[in-house]
Design goal:
The chain has 312 residues and is of the alpha/beta class. 38% of the residues lie in helices and 21% in strands. It has two domains: 3-119 and 300-311, Nucleotidyltransferase, domain 5 (2-Layer Sandwich); 128-295, Nucleotidyltransferase, domain 5 (2-Layer Sandwich).
């Protein structure tokens, strides 16, 4: 039986998975992401590791039906990275370079957030769905739109960048993208902390967060779950921004499900309930009952999605 490899290239490690033709994960591992010399070692390292895996399993390159790559940057349909700052890549023909080193093989590339969403559709909480939106709440806010089973990438590979939807005209601080008032400034882990600190500075009443020299988004959610009034105000504000953003997205793509992932999503159903509350307030009547669910594949979503680039 032919094998497929799903590769998730991160700034610290590269995750690799070997899959069967039916999408069963047979083997997985990680290697360091060596960013020396402008990231020129990354693709050779991946090719060498795949070759090693094949050898250990008594397989050859002829047994490989394809390799999918998830890359932390904008990627065109023909496998060209437009820029990938945290890997040291500028414009880089990833697919061509991979074939040059490994040999002729089917190679497909996509943005890592998009690939993670594809993984959830392939073998995660979106399995069986062909139209979905994934919202990833981590250090930043990422997203992916999948229409009829295919990633909607857009002309510049920027479709699904929901973290930079403009949400607040009155915001004075600047987002990492250079604009002001982006969803990422409120929905990310750092955004949750920032919003909470603003509320603490102006709201009356006691809060356990006032006794902490520094606190995280998890601390905010833990406090809110225990009944802390100010922490709950912050979570309500987060839910409002995310619910409103999802309502706007639904007016454009009308997905069958919203999947919420990333570190902030570990707050679980407590967070989902807040998002749904405001989504229902803002959503168009036709899509007001669109379900929200938590992602289930965790850190493996990337390798499953990368494999799905080949298998689906």
């Amino acid at each position: 039986m032919s094998k497929c490899f799903g590769v998730d290239i991160g700034g610290t490690t590269v995750k690799l998975g070997m899959f069967t033709e039916d999408g069963t994960l047979e083997y997985q591992c990680e290697i360091p992401t060596r960013k020396d010399n402008g990231g020129s070692l990354i693709i050779p390292d991946i090719c060498a590791k795949i070759t090693e895996i094949l050898t250990v399993n008594s397989l050859t390159k002829a047994d490989v039906m394809g390799v999918g790559l998830g890359v932390p940057g904008a990627v065109t349909e023909d496998g060209i990275v437009l820029k990938c700052v945290n890997l040291g890549w500028d414009i880089f023909k990833v697919a061509d370079k991979f074939k040059e080193i490994f040999g002729e093989v089917n190679v497909k590339c996509a943005n890592d957030a998009n690939v993670a969403a594809l993984g959830e559709m392939f073998k995660g909480s979106g399995e069986g769905k062909k139209d979905m939106v994934m919202i990833t709440l981590g250090t930043g806010v990422g997203g992916c739109v999948i229409v009829n089973g295919k990633i909607l990438a857009g002309v510049n590979g920027a479709a699904g960048e929901i973290g930079h939807m403009p949400m607040n005209d009155d915001e004075e601080d600047t987002c990492g993208c250079g604009k002001k008032g982006c969803l990422e400034q409120y929905g990310s882990a750092t955004g949750v902390v920032k919003v909470t600190k603003r509320i603490l500075a102006s709201a009356e009443g006691e809060s356990c967060l006032k006794d902490m020299e520094d606190f995280s988004a998890k601390d905010v959610f833990d406090a809110a779950k225990s009944g802390d009034k100010i922490a709950n105000m912050a979570v309500e504000e987060l839910g409002k921004y995310l619910g409103k953003a999802a309502a706007q997205i639904s007016c454009v793509v009308d997905p069958s499900v919203f999947i919420v992932g990333g570190g902030v999503s570990k707050a679980g159903q407590f967070l989902i309930d807040r998002i749904v509350k405001y989504y229902k307030e803002y959503a168009l009547f036709a899509s007001v009952d669109t379900p929200f669910t938590l992602a289930t594949l965790g850190n493996d979503a990337g390798i499953y999605g990368a494999a799905a680039l080949i298998l689906s």
